[in-house]
Amino acid sequence: MMAAATRPDSSEASPKRPHVPVLLAEVLDALAARPGDTIVDGTFGAGGYSRAILETGARVVAIDRDPDAIAGGAPLVAQSAGRLDLVEGRFSDLDAHVRALGLSAVEGVVLDLGVSSMQLDQAERGFSFRNDGPLDMRMERKGLSAADVANLMPQRDLTRVIGILGEEKRASAVSRAICDRRAQAPFARTSDLAAVVEKVVGRSFKGKQIHPATRTFQALRMYVNRELEQIVDALAAAERILAPGGRLVVVTFHSLEDRIVKRFLADRTRTRAGGSRHLPETDVPPPTFELAFKGAREAGETEVRDNPRARSARLRAGLRTDAPARTDMPDNLGVPRLASLEQAEG
Asked: How far apart are CA 134 and CA 136, in angstroms?
């Protein structure tokens, strides 16, 4: 398993740094979009990928669950001469969104996972602790917030969330400190939670060490938005909607995301299963994907220097075969079982 590669979710967000799409050249190369193709950009964000794909002459169906992203994309829609459909919704439902537009298949799907630069840069959204804001983190601006989880979740479950989703080694101590503090006053601001975590983890920067609260913030954000579950559903939706020869391109930013994509593609490209001296090989359904290339592609030194957000990015891609989409998903994709949001609310 690759080492935890934490996206600079909170410690490096800055409104002064313009949005730069990560691995843009590699994404365009993997998509190989042509005039007349339809490409789904499942994570529109600030529109970087969609804008570049439109320049190839392809049509784009762009999806985002964040209403701010939809509003911000209106100018690009107006400039697209009818080739950009911007849909508010979850990328886990991307096949349904495509069919609602009267399309039965598409030639490409691209997913840029994690939180967007735009969300990080807006203090009022509560994703970052660089600038103080409400402890929110909801991409859709509805449902339970990060403050609700920090204030209501039982300590045992909070430890699992922070330890598994945040890959925080001191998860138990962090959750205990959060629970001790919330007994005195509930959390409401990002800076408040960051200060509590920092006291536990410590702020001893060495080299490029991340801010001590980064992993806890990452965990709460991923939990609130059910990000890992959404990835699994999006991969299945892409399998259903891609035409034969269509391309699935996914950019991940840490090990939890990358593990899911890697295992999904491994499962969908297998032709045989089993095969030890104790268990004979068994047939599996026809592969629904072929690997576009082995392993993952990463940002080069120049891009990392110019855009630090790219340093942990990994790109994987698959080519859709003509085999029917499967109805099952493997059990080993790496999505942890955590207490439900409803249990946290209670």
From this structure: 6
Answer for the pair 290, 228: CB distance below 8 angstroms, yes or no: no
Residues 154-175 have a mean pLDDT of 96
Q: What average pLDDT does range 53-72 have in this prediction?
A: 95
Which residue type does 153 have? M
pLDDT in tens, 215-245: 999 999 999 999 999 999 999 999 999 999 9
By C-alpha distance, which of 222, 218, 61, 225 is closest to 141? 225
The answer to whether 223 and 115 have CB atoms below 8 angstroms apart is no
Whether the CB-CB separation of 31 and 249 falls below 8 Å is answered with yes
Closest-CA residue to 166 (of 121, 100, 211):
211
- pLDDT (tens digit, 9 = 90+) per residue, 21-44? 899 999 999 999 999 999 999 999
Cβ-contact 165, 257 below 8 angstroms: no
Contacts of 205 (CB under 8 A, 6+ apart): none
pTM, to two decimals:
0.86
